[in-house]
Each structure stands twice: as C-alpha cells, then as structure tokens.
Design goal:
Helix content: 40-55%
CATH class of the largest domain: Alpha Beta
Radius of gyration: 32 Å
Distance between the termini: 60 Å
CATH architecture of the largest domain: 3-Layer(aba) Sandwich
Number of domains: 2
Mean pLDDT: 89
Strand order of the largest sheet: 4-3-5-12-6-10
Number of strands: 12
Structural class: alpha/beta
Length: 291
C-alpha cells in the first residue's frame, strides 16, 4: 500500500514544479523531500519525475499518480473540514448528570444562564445514583456530574476524576401544612421522631441525622423523586429533611429550620482529570453561584 505521506509529498513537488519549493511548503528539508520521492519510486518500481536542467517534469506514470494524489488530497481536506465542524459542534454540547433535587434547582438555573450567553448550547441531563453518575463520567458518557455527601463525612475522592466542591447546603424539615409544628420557623428534630418519614434511602443522610438526634426514624416511604416527596409530605403521610434550596420550590408544605446545628450536605461535582471540554469550567462557576 502506498504511504500517504510520500504520496502527498510527491503531489507538492508535482504541483509546485520544484523540490525546494515543496520542501518550503511542507516545512521539510530538500533532502527529506528527495528521499521521500525516491522511496516512493522504489516502492512502485517506476520513475515518476524527470529531473533535468529545465526543472521537474512528470513521467506518464507520474501524471497518472498525480490524479490519484489530487483525489487523496481532496478527500483528506474534506475529512478535515467535516471533523472540524463535528468537533466544534461537540464542544457546544454538554452531557451532565445529577441527583434529583439538583436537577430541580441548581442545574437548570446554571444552564439557563449559560444558554442566555450561548443560545446554540446543546445540553443533555441525566438523573442517577452516585455510583451510576461516577461510572458515566469515567466512561465518557457524561462530561460532568453533580453529587452530594454528608458535609460531616470525609470528602470522597475518586481515582482519575477531579472533585470540585461547589457549596454547603443546610437541611431543613419538611412538614405537612396541617402538622402541629408547621407554623414554627424552627423546630427540634426530636419533636417529629414519632412521625412516619420519607427518605431517598433507609441508611442515607436523613437516617444518620435522625440517629444523631437520638432516635431511629420510621422510614415508611423510600423515594428519590422530588414530586413524590412533596406529595407524601403535603398529604400528611410523612415528614422528612430536604435541602434548603429545594425547600423554596416545594409549595404546599412547611419547611422550618432545624434547631441547633442542622445537618449539612456538601454539593460537589466530578469530571475527568483530563477534561478539555471548554464549557465545564463555565458550568462549575454557574453551579457555584447558584448556591
């Protein structure tokens, strides 16, 4: 098979009619150009270029090969332009993952501000568990994932991923509108120890916060869905703890602060250590300002 590099070097010599001018055009030395042409001729077993005092001329074989070299050059130029367009399009496309309440709050707010500055920005957002989102960032499915953890716990570190802490968010109580403590602006968590609870899991932050307050919560409803949580609380079936950012968006429930030192969660993002996407820095800045 012909070496494309030698073929394109031959094309420049034929096009410019000079070894020295081809060398200048290709940023090579003249001996390097001559060596590539000689190697091509040896490979084909035929002379391509007549070298004489009058300059460079093509043999019949050279004329034939030049037509193929022009076609190769045209296809490579087309491929380059198409790939540049594809790269430009890809670099205006973000894939983001997040936990449910982030998708209901800070993620859309950040993306709306980014799209206001760049109307052509294309975004895909995916909900997932911590394990799912981290795996998706690792395999390249997501450019960035927004996660959370108990602020009192040691920061989670991820091999080959960069962690970026965004802000800390205090947790507040979520009570039915007719709950006896609903009119209060601040409550003691123990006052709702006997209520049925809803939580995203039976052993997560809500459960640990209740244990730290001195009681085991009766987690009767397990759901990560923000609307389901709101309906369970609004209908009087359960109480829970939610992030302060989400509290202002769940209408029809009471959201008093928790007395003392309330549980807090750290909102953070992860992306590949080798990240080169031009928009992830901007997204991180917008997410931080949303908190």
């Amino acid at each position: 098979m012909l070496d494309p590099r030698r073929l394109l070097t031959f094309r420049e010599v034929a096009r410019l009619g000079s070894f020295s001018r081809a060398a200048e055009e290709l940023s090579l030395t003249q001996p390097a150009v001559s060596h590539q042409i000689l190697s091509l001729e040896r490979q084909l077993g035929i002379r391509l270029i007549d070298r004489g005092p009058g300059g460079v001329g093509l043999t019949a074989a050279g004329e034939l090969l030049l037509r193929h070299a022009d076609a190769v050059s045209d296809r490579l130029r087309l491929a380059t332009e198409q790939l540049r367009a594809l790269v430009a399009e890809e670099r205006r496309h973000l894939t983001v993952g997040a936990f449910p309440s982030a998708i209901a709050t800070i993620v859309p707010e950040a993306l709306v501000r980014m799209r206001a500055a760049d109307p052509d920005l294309q975004v895909n957002v995916t909900e997932g568990t911590l394990q799912e989102l981290v795996a998706a960032v690792r395999d390249g499915t997501l450019h960035l994932a927004v996660l959370f953890q108990d602020a009192a716990a040691p920061p989670r570190d991820y091999e080959d991923l960069g962690r970026h802490d965004l802000f800390e968010e205090p947790m507040v109580a979520a009570l039915p509108p007719r709950h006896r403590l609903a009119p209060r602006s601040t409550i003691d968590l123990k006052r709702i120890a006997g209520d049925a609870w809803t939580a995203p899991s039976r052993d997560g932050l809500v459960h640990r916060t209740c244990l730290a307050a001195g009681f085991e919560p009766n987690i009767a409803f397990v759901t990560r869905d923000v609307l389901a949580i709101r309906e369970l609380v609004a209908s009087g079936l359960a109480v829970t703890l939610i992030g302060r950012l989400l509290a202002g968006r769940l209408h029809g429930i009471a959201t008093p602060a928790v007395r003392g030192d309330p549980a807090r969660r750290t909102i953070y993002a992860v992306r590949p250590n080798t990240d080169s996407h031009p928009l992830t820095d901007r997204l991180l800045a917008e997410l931080t300002s949303s908190g």
